[in-house]
Design a protein that fits this description.
The protein contains 13 helices and 15 strands. The protein is an alpha/beta fold. Helix 11 runs parallel beside helix 13 and helix 12 crosses helix 13. The longest helix has 22 residues. The radius of gyration is 21 Å and the shape is globular.
Length: 409
């Protein structure tokens, strides 16, 4: 119900001038904050020169500049890019590229995943039934493996990873044989599924599987990319090298742009004309915003800032967890942090999460929920957030907790 008319940094304002502390960042889009001056200026400058140059017809200079800037932050050898408008488009492109490169048909995804709402991306999405209900039959060739979510299994991380590895090996024998599997697609941090970081050992295991069988490892960094987790990309925490990277959200600081990145060898597997789009790579306003975004992330050290502010935020949330038994788990990487709510029996509680969220919004703190049970509040402020902003948010959050659930003395 907030009718926003202006944004600056970590705040949005309505027509009456009421300020709202925005810890949603446009669902992880506004990593540089609302209306960062350098991004705004880049958009204005580009608007005076060229709005659009269709990539099949001309080569827009700003698009070339963007590819060069992206290549600088990618692992060595991942230096070819395809641009689109949003995350679902990029997901579809990544799967099509993997199929073209391998000559195989199937894709493996993970429980709790969110990859988009177009038909193929919907078939790959398992975080909530609402995203799929009423749209069946969905595209075939999708197999779902367990995601190593230790809190939900009730085990320690090593036990959880061991179990998920065994289940994955079973899947390769029972659901999708390696010789028919084109891609393994995983979010290094589950987004809509509950903000759950994938353990490094599990990501390294998937890299090994892909190397053994010639499968493409596709890492979906739509929500976790561009400094959000304390590194430029979340896969860097595990030290794994993807074959294909899916990017969107934080790349454009609010303008629609997405991309996939891969090696020249993989990209060359695409026959000309088999994939494309009118606006991909030609929307130079979005490319200008993306170039400025990458410069701001680098010059203002925003990934490093996210690591520091994320640790500060999580320390504050864990202090609250010690006093409020309804907070079952605090987890995350950098400023991609979650608080999961449970009832007195330890079961997921959407009611508490929604009550706390509603109370926070009433006190002008904007927060979002997520997870299959809708019992997780996610903390994704712009990376320019200050400690004082976090302190303010934690104060509002604790007041909402006291009004909504039991307290541990």
């Amino acid at each position: 119900d907030v009718h926003a008319v202006r944004g600056e940094g970590v705040r949005m304002y309505d027509a009456a001038g009421t300020a709202y502390l925005d810890f949603t960042a446009g669902i992880g889009v506004l990593n540089t904050g609302h209306c960062h001056p350098r991004v705004v200026q880049a958009i204005k400058d580009q608007a005076d020169q060229l709005l659009f140059g269709q990539i099949n017809c001309v080569v827009p200079a700003k698009t070339v500049e963007l590819t060069e800037k992206l290549a600088e932050i990618m692992p060595a050898g991942i230096d070819r890019f395809y641009f689109a408008n949003g995350g679902a488009e990029a997901t579809e492109a990544a799967v099509k590229l993997a199929k073209a490169a391998t000559g195989r048909q199937n894709t493996i995804v993970f429980q709790g995943s969110f990859h988009g709402r177009t038909h193929l991306a919907m078939a790959m999405t398992t975080s909530k039934t609402v995203y799929r209900t009423g749209y069946h039959p969905l595209p075939a060739g999708i197999a779902v493996a367990p995601f190593p979510h230790a809190f939900h299994f009730g085990w320690d991380e090593d036990t959880t990873v061991d179990f998920c590895i065994k289940q994955f090996e079973l899947l390769l024998k029972s659901r999708s044989a390696p010789e028919e599997t084109a891609a393994i697609v995983i979010e290094p941090v589950l987004g809509e599924g509950g903000y759950v970081p994938a353990p490094a050992r599990f990501l390294r295991y998937l890299r090994d599987v892909c190397d053994r069988y010639g499968i493409c490892l596709v890492l979906d960094e739509v929500q976790s990319g561009f400094g959000r987790t304390g590194r430029m990309f979340a896969f860097e925490h595990a030290g794994v090298r993807p074959d294909i990277v899916i990017m969107a959200k934080g790349l454009g600081s609010g303008l629609p742009i997405s991309a996939i990145a891969a090696s020249a060898a993989l990209m060359d597997a695409w026959r000309p004309g088999t994939h494309g789009g009118t606006y991909g790579g030609g929307a130079v306003i979005s490319a200008a915003a993306a170039c400025a975004t990458l410069d701001v992330l680098r010059d203002e050290h925003l990934p490093e800032r996210a690591a520091h502010m994320g640790a500060y935020l999580q320390a504050g949330l864990r202090a609250l967890q010690a006093r409020h038994s309804e907070i079952g788990d605090v987890r995350g990487l950098g400023l991609m942090t979650a608080t999961e709510f449970v009832d007195e029996a330890g079961e997921p509680s959407m009611a508490i999460a929604k009550s706390v969220q509603k109370a926070c919004i009433a006190n002008r703190l904007l927060l979002l929920t997520c997870s299959s049970f809708n019992n997780v509040i996610r903390w994704i402020p712009p990376l320019v957030v200050e400690e004082s902003d976090i302190d303010e948010a934690l104060g509002v959050f604790e007041a909402a907790l006291c009004a909504s659930g039991p307290v541990v003395n």
